[in-house]
Design brief:
single chain; SH3 type barrels; 12% strand
């Protein structure tokens, strides 16, 4: 007869719950009399499989993070590519078309050329020439050149073309110039002040071409209005009644440029430039008169 007590003890040693109904005579009486020789099945903890799956889950999380980083880098790179300057992109396109022109028929080449010379972006800004260059009647070197612009010439740009050229305004007419021949950076050497006063002077600079003046006229204008008002739109002469940046006398004259003329520097500057153009012809002439007479 099987010694139930021995089996019970052996199973308790191995952490197995005793169940009398499940006990079957798998071992001989001699084996049961010596517990050391009794073979029992090792029972794995219920959570063993869960623990073994943790490394797999960790690998999946790390892989997902790496993919996220790669996708983010790709997205940032795509944004950078999208924001490449239009003229650089246009130059690349033009070079590609020029290289493939032998593979195109005349009709296809005409369509592509027309597209590249079309407007990519309408703008309204002032730029300066980076060197002596010719301007043309079309956005390509094959067009006629009616004239040449010198270095640091301030001109108004009205559009950027698909091929990177710029559409400019010269003497009220539209012409074209290569995009790498102009820059929005103000030429060095102009005594533009820092801060708010400098912003007023830059606004005056942007208006000079409207009167046929180049950027060299800004310097005497700065000297002139530094002496008159220090470029302060609220400057007021209590004795004479002169007011604003150009010291209009009386200040109400500037109302022709805007109802807010009394405190707004922009209508004051516009009025002052028109006054200088009508009376002296240029800021340099007005400054020369002020230097010799003390007024203008």
């Amino acid at each position: 007869m099987i010694n139930i007590e021995i089996i019970k003890k052996v199973r308790e040693v191995n952490g197995i719950q005793y169940d009398q109904e499940s006990v079957k005579p798998k071992h001989s009486k001699a084996e049961l009399s010596n517990p050391k020789h009794v073979r029992t099945e090792s029972i794995k903890p219920k959570h063993a499989r869960a623990e073994s799956s943790k490394p797999k889950i960790l690998k999946i999380v790390i892989a997902a993070e790496l993919i996220s980083v790669i996708l983010a880098c790709c997205y940032i790179y795509s944004i950078w590519c999208h924001n490449i300057e239009m003229r650089v992109f246009g130059q690349v396109c033009s070079a590609a078309v020029a290289g493939a022109s032998d593979c195109m028929d005349d009709a296809t080449h005409k369509v592509v050329k027309s597209y590249l010379e079309g407007v990519a972006e309408e703008v309204y800004e002032y730029v300066w020439t980076t060197g002596k260059t010719k301007y043309r009647t079309g956005a390509d070197t094959s067009y006629k050149s009616p004239g040449t612009l010198g270095k640091d010439k301030m001109i108004r740009r009205t559009a950027i073309m698909h091929n990177g050229w710029s559409r400019i305004s010269v003497d009220g007419e539209e012409y074209y110039i290569p995009g790498d021949k102009v820059s929005t950076d103000i030429p060095e050497g102009l005594p533009i002040a820092d801060g708010v006063k400098g912003e007023y002077q830059k606004y005056a600079l942007s208006l000079l071409p409207d009167f046929g003046w180049d950027s060299s006229e800004l310097e005497p204008l700065i000297y002139l209005w530094n002496r008159e008002s220090g470029w302060n739109p609220n400057s007021h002469n209590k004795r004479s009644g002169a007011h604003g940046i150009p010291q209009a006398l009386p200040g109400s004259k500037m109302a022709s440029e805007g109802s807010d003329y009394y405190t707004n520097p922009e209508p004051q500057i516009r009025w002052g430039l028109k006054y200088i153009a009508g009376r002296y012809g240029s800021p340099s002439a007005a400054w020369a008169h002020f230097s010799s007479h003390g007024w203008y």
